[in-house]
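Private note to self, pasted from the team thread so I don't lose it. Backbone tokens:
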């Protein structure tokens, strides 16, 4: 979500500093990494479709100002963020991950990457 932050330290992501210098850009738009009410979404981890959709509006608005524009190939969340604490996360099932993918498709994104640190991916995800 680095495009929405003016400064993100420690993760090596400065979207606006590199977007005009690369052919492909892969922002991490994991719903679990957004604070509550980010982009006016009450609980981003529990509303992955909406947070991904709203993020893509912002990214597309910025990227279209670049010439040439990089391809957006975002990382999406394919893990349950139980580190958020009880009541603050949901299980990231195939259906939930498919919601993220649907938001990307509706935004015109045809390429994406799934992240799960344990490399445990469902075969039931609707690609």
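Design output:
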């Amino acid at each position: 979500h680095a495009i929405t932050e003016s400064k993100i330290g420690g993760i090596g992501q400065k979207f606006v500093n590199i977007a005009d210098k690369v052919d492909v850009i892969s922002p991490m738009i994991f719903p679990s990494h957004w604070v509550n009410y980010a982009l006016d979404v009450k609980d981003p981890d529990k509303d992955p479709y909406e947070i991904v959709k709203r993020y893509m509006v912002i990214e597309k608005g910025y990227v279209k100002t670049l010439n040439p524009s990089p391809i957006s190939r975002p990382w999406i969340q394919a893990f349950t963020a139980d580190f958020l604490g009880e009541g603050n996360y949901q299980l990231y099932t195939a259906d939930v991950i498919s919601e993220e993918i649907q938001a990307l498709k509706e935004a015109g994104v045809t390429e994406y990457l799934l992240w799960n640190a344990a490399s445990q991916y469902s075969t039931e995800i609707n690609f």
